[in-house]
Design goal:
Blueprint (H helix, E strand, L loop, with lengths): L40 H10 L12 H9 L4 E4 L13 E4 L8 E3 L5 E4 L9 H14 L4 E3 L11 H4 L9 E2 L15 H13 L3 E3 L6 E5 L4 E5 L5 H13 L10 E8 L2 E8 L5 H19 L7 H12 L1 E3 L2
Parallel strand pairs: 2-4, 10-12
Antiparallel strand pairs: 1-2, 1-6, 3-4, 3-5, 7-8, 8-9, 9-11, 10-11
Helix pairs in contact: 6-7, 6-8
């Protein structure tokens, strides 16, 4: 009986990492290793997509306002400035907190683009997902909503598409009428979505004297929520120093009650009496910013009462993202 000759496979060309295309997870990896894609080059791609980016807006102009619009502000818009010229037929690109029907983006009939910020994202990098949505919206047909998807792991981030020197000036709205230029001709679905969104919107005002601070009105009391760019441990130490010294309030009847943690930044929160408006806290907030700058500059160990104050602030910290 003749011996069975060993079969030989034609040697596949070995590709460089940058040349490996994306294929199905269970398909052979195009690199020629003989393993399935998900166990070979797909592993790194999947990790890149799912890895959580703690500060997705770092490096963008007004990082604190990006965080506030993502997590705290109901209705606001900002005109975005791109590094490259806008494509022909796209007069403007506007970031919005929320869009009708929770669309990730919308190419309006006039060609302008609206990008929604407060949407669920498919990967761990909000910046990459938003950049992917933006690029697809720029080439969509006018009058087309953009659906969500998982952005390619090697796709650009917002930091690569937006002008780093461009202004970022949020305009806070009392409602969501900016969704449609002519509400009389909107679809029933959009009209219903608009009514629901307006009913749930909390009155909010951006302070003009300090960065990324937003006053809001609720039935029982008002609040000031202030997104701060400082390292968390340094900021909590500084807030504790001021709190222990009785200098952390924004005036009579106000109280620093804790903080949020959102997208890598810390957001101190003050309770305000119902009658205290955004205008009323403009000056106290500016004065507090000066006191905070002095406290941030101190590297002395915390005194016992300051450590207790810090513990109280830490216990009342809530993570939003």
């Amino acid at each position: 009986m003749a011996k069975k000759r060993p079969q030989t496979k034609a040697k596949q060309p070995q590709l460089k990492d940058g040349e490996i295309p994306v294929v199905g997870a269970r398909e052979p990896c195009p690199c020629g290793s003989g393993r399935r894609y998900k166990a070979c080059h797909g592993r790194a791609a999947a990790h890149a997509v799912t890895e959580l980016v703690q500060r997705p807006f770092e490096g963008l102009p007004s990082e604190g306002d990006w965080v506030a619009l993502r997590e705290l502000v109901p209705a606001a818009t900002v005109e975005l400035n791109l590094k490259e010229s806008l494509p022909e037929g796209v007069p403007s690109v506007t970031l919005a907190t929320v869009l009708p029907m929770a669309w990730p983006a919308l190419r309006r009939d006039d060609g302008s683009v609206l990008i929604g910020l407060q949407n669920d994202t498919a990967s761990g990098d909000i910046s990459r997902d938003l950049a992917d949505t933006l690029q697809r919206a720029l080439t969509a047909q006018p009058g087309t909503p953009i659906q969500g998807r998982r952005a390619p792991a090697d796709g650009p981030r917002l930091q690569e598409l937006l002008d780093p020197e461009g202004a970022f000036e949020p305009v806070v709205h009392s409602g969501f009428e900016f969704w449609v230029p002519d509400t009389a001709h909107s679809t029933p679905e959009v009209t219903a979505s608009l009514e629901r969104a307006n009913a749930a919107a909390i009155p909010t005002v951006k302070l003009s004297g300090v960065d990324a601070a937003y006053w809001c009105e609720t039935p029982d009391k008002n609040h000031l929520r202030w997104v701060m760019p400082y390292p968390e441990e340094q900021l909590l130490d500084a807030l504790a120093r001021l709190h222990a010294a009785g200098r952390s309030s924004l005036g009579e009847g106000t109280r620093l009650v804790g903080s949020f943690r959102a997208h890598g930044l810390t957001v101190p929160v003050w309770d305000l009496p119902t009658g205290v408006t955004a205008d009323d806290v403009e000056k106290p907030a500016a004065e507090f910013a000066e006191r905070l700058a002095t406290a941030l500059a101190s590297d002395a160990p915390l005194a016992p009462d300051e450590r207790r104050a810090r513990g109280g602030l830490t216990n009342r910290q809530v993570t939003l993202s």
